[in-house]
Design goal:
about 20% strand; cell projection; Pepdidase_M14_N; disordered C terminus; 18 helices; binds zinc ion; alpha+beta; disordered N terminus; about 675 residues; carboxypeptidase; Peptidase_M14; metalloprotease; eight-stranded mixed β-sheet; globular
């Protein structure tokens, strides 16, 4: 877009200034027109806070935040490291406590930032977020002790809303919901300082929204110590004892309905390795937009890799952050050969809290742009279109699920609202153009999964065409053979559900891509083979990107042996399932009469979100404001009702009644 801007500068200079009221004609506020003896001299407005000037060493712009977001100056950096041994799942002792929320009245607020709904919808963005000095995030006051932990999350992908000290070493934490919504908590990432070594601290996150979690299946939180990184070269590791995930007494009120859902708590205890260290706690290995930019910058500045990959701007997000698209293919071969290459589309991070998707993506790109014979063969066989981060805004602000439209982008692939959902609109458009040009063999969108272990895929059954029967299952079955201790074919599902019509997977399949998948990696670990009962590391996640490439070569092997073996195996598997579940025998061709969906469990199994409509900023503004304009009488009535509802739950709840604008609790 900078190119366009310079172009328009040139164009403007070509017109005599008198013929054009430049100030009025300009549709951008980024250009300023100076006049020198009647000549218009356009220049970029200062300070240049919209786009950094690209340079060969860094073709990337600074990061844009919604203007209300406060961002601290320091940038967070973590080393990449893998533990020498696989880290085992947590084994419950049966004595884990389930502390109920205490609240701010009985506790001591040590950290508090503006809620996600401070402004009702996204308005403007700015590089570096909110202008002006950063506010003090802690309440201070007489209770403030030197021995308190110091929390911070106002950095990329951070999302701690509030920390309340409820015991000497006991902290109750509230996560910031996705921006302009009051839901979707699950991801967490924040900094802790001022700790004492040898002390056991308890952390309890009290506003988790999912009814179940991998924390019930042995998953542990992650800890990063800057001093351990500095002194021993160690990075993120699994920590924690007394881990429990359970329903608490708080409820989450839906914005527009009377239905209330229970909130859940995640509690754990842990010690820190050093006194007065800087540590981080997270749900999964963070992978920020800056991290992606550094990675892309390495790929495009290294002559060894830049020969096969072109980096382009797919579009800008709502906040104006760049959504990158990479084209990877070998420049060798004649025109006819190159134009006959089939295409593969790979995307990731439509859901910003699913950082595991980005690690798989990094592994995929590193392998694909590497020097191995397999990588070269892949580049000579295919044209890869890769969108490594579909939702940079969500990643920047620390969302779990949504874009700054306050909506799940992966329910909006059918959208006509290009300006509200630019990232998915342009992705679909890019795929359409690609399909007009060449065959697209496979589309895959990388995700994280918060309730099941292992890695698996969701696909779409091609049941309309008998010649294609079961073929959509070949690639996932091959994956499970190549990554036997990580990838579970049993967890794969091949369904076209009504509720998922707006997902990338189903929209691309309806466009005509038969092999259309999401690849879901657990946040936890494996239950398979040698790796049974251990967490995935960064290296494990990256290896999935490699296995994906490996499987592509198997899938497209001109020798059909592997494919026909897989088809035979799939047929046998299905016949057995029919026997077990429906009590029916089938001959080898009898499957046609059985709807495959009948024998797959009907639970969606995935991280479902209902499609929740128009972007928040397009909702009827009077509707959006309604809850702020309640009459005093209504407010009193509501209060009475709430007090009745919480009677007996202790005084601490009442304080929260006043916080009408974040009426998450009552
Ligand atoms: Zn997802």
């Amino acid at each position: 877009s900078l190119f366009v801007r310079f172009n328009s500068v040139v164009m403007l200079c070509a017109y005599p200034p008198a013929a054009l009221h430049l100030g009025q004609a300009l549709r951008t506020r980024q250009l300023v027109i100076d006049y020198d003896r009647g000549r218009a001299i356009p220049r970029l407005r200062e300070p240049l806070d919209l786009f950094a000037i690209p340079s060969p060493s860094s073709p990337f712009q600074g990061i844009r935040w919604p203007i209300e977001c406060e961002v601290i100056k320091e940038t967070m950096h973590h080393i990449e490291w893998d533990p020498p041994e696989p880290e085992p799942f947590y084994q419950p002792t049966g004595h884990e406590r389930t502390p109920m929320p205490v609240g701010e009245e009985k506790g001591n607020v040590v950290y508090y930032i503006d809620p996600a709904t401070k402004t009702p919808y996204f308005t403007y963005s700015r590089m570096g977020g909110c202008r002006g000095p950063i506010s003090k995030s802690t309440a201070g006051g007489p209770h403030q002790e030197q021995s308190n932990l110091a929390f911070e999350s106002r950095f990329e992908s951070g999302n701690l809303q509030k920390a309340v000290q409820v015991g000497v070493h006991d902290y109750e934490l509230t996560l910031r919901t996705d921006m302009y919504t009051n839901k979707h908590t699950q991801w967490f990432y924040f900094r802790v300082r001022n700790m004492k070594v040898g002390v056991t601290y308890r952390f309890t996150i009290v506003n988790m929204m999912k009814a179940s979690s991998l924390y019930c299946l042995g998953m542990k939180p992650l800890l990063y110590s800057e001093r351990a990184a500095w002194e021993k070269g160690e990075g993120w590791r699994r920590i924690g004892s007394n881990i429990r995930y359970y329903r608490n007494q708080h409820h989450h009120a839906e914005q527009d309905s009377a239905t209330k859902k229970s909130l859940h708590s995640l509690t754990w205890t842990c010690q820190f390795p050093y006194d007065s260290d800087t540590c981080f706690l997270a749900h999964c290995y963070p992978y920020t937009y800056s991290h992606l930019q550094r990675h892309l910058s390495r790929l495009t500045s290294d002559p060894a890799t830049s020969a096969y990959c072109k980096l382009r701007v797919l579009c800008r997000s709502l906040a104006g952050n760049t959504v990158h698209v990479l084209t990877v293919t070998s420049p060798e071969g004649g025109w006819a050969e190159r134009s006959a290459r089939k295409a593969v589309v790979v995307t990731a991070r439509v859901h910003p809290g699913e950082t595991n998707g980005s690690w798989m993506m990094q592994g995929f790109l590193d392998f694909l742009l590497g020097e191995s014979d397999d990588a070269r063969l892949l580049r000579e066989t295919f044209v890869f279109k890769v969108v490594p981060m579909l939702n940079p805004d969500g990643v920047v602000v620390g969302n779990y699920r949504c874009s700054l439209a306050g909506r799940d982008l992966n329910r909006n692939y059918k959208t006509l609202l290009r300006d509200s959902f630019p990232c998915v609109w342009h992705t679909r458009n890019m795929v359409k153009r690609l399909m007009a040009e060449r065959d697209v063999v496979l589309y895959c969108d990388f995700h994280g999964h918060s309730r099941k272990n292992n890695v698996f895929m969701y696909g779409c059954a091609n049941s309309d065409d008998p010649t294609q029967r079961l073929r959509e299952r070949i690639f996932p079955l091959m994956m499970s053979k190549n990554a036997a201790d990580k990838f579970s074919f049993r967890s794969c599902k091949f369904r076209v559900q009504k509720s998922k019509e707006g997902t990338g997977r189903i929209v691309m399949w309806r466009l005509g891509i038969r092999n259309s998948y999401t690849m879901e990696s657990t946040f936890g670990g494996s239950t398979l083979g040698n790796r049974k009962g251990t967490h995935f590391t960064m290296r494990d996640l990256k290896s999935l990107g490699y296995y994906f490439c490996d499987t592509l070569l198997d899938y497209c092997d001109p020798d059909p042996t592997k494919t026909s073996h897989c088809l035979a195996e799939l047929g046998a598997m299905l016949r057995q399932q029919v026997r077990e579940r429906l009590g029916r025998e089938t001959d080898s061709d009898g499957l046609v009469s059985v709807s495959i969906s009948d024998i797959e469990s009907s639970t969606s199994g995935s991280n479902s979100t209902e499609s929740d409509g128009l972007p928040v900023h397009l909702l009827n503004p009077t509707q959006a404001k309604k809850k702020h304009l309640r009459s005093r009488k209504d407010r009193n009535k509501l209060r009475e009702k709430r007090v009745r509802g919480v009677a007996g739950k202790g005084k601490s709840c009442q304080l929260l009644l006043c916080v009408d604008s974040i009426s998450v609790y009552h």
